[in-house]
Amino acid sequence: MEALIETALRDRDQDGAIRWRAIEELQRRGDLETFTAAKRLCAGETPAERMLGVDILGRLGFVDRSLPVLRALSAREDDCLVLYSVLIAFGHLRDRRALPSVIALSEHADPGIRYGAAYALPNIMGSPPDPTGLAALRRLVHDPDEDVADWACLGLALSTGREVEDVRREVLDP
């Protein structure tokens, strides 16, 4: 396990193939030892350590144990890439308890973080979708960043079972 963590940390490309192969191997382990190591990384000194911990937790399982770690990190973290990873992890975990954290981050100044929120929201709002999550997506549809607005529009369509163009017309052309 430690060798996989070191391999992932050595790959400076956050989307690097070597890094993600190591993360996927750690996630496949699916054991408490890996969870403990990922949790420790989430409290690491460097953004690279924290992001690695988050990326491992995002698909490791242990939702009840991972959510408090990720929610605490979302409240105190100042690195935009780590926060983006937290939002993607929330989306993968698909748990409504992440909603307050995601809604708070949906108002962040950084468009990458807002994009992550637009990704996470439809995955965590539940069925029927939470009204506060829908309101956040509706707000993000008007985001000045085109990618954020497009993803929010798709999220609204997925959450309401409607066509993207119908949602776009309704929200953008009231």
UniProtKB/TrEMBL annotation:
Organism per entry: Streptosporangium fragile
Protein name as it appears in the record: PBS lyase
Gene3D superfamilies: Leucine-rich Repeat Variant
Source superkingdom: Bacteria
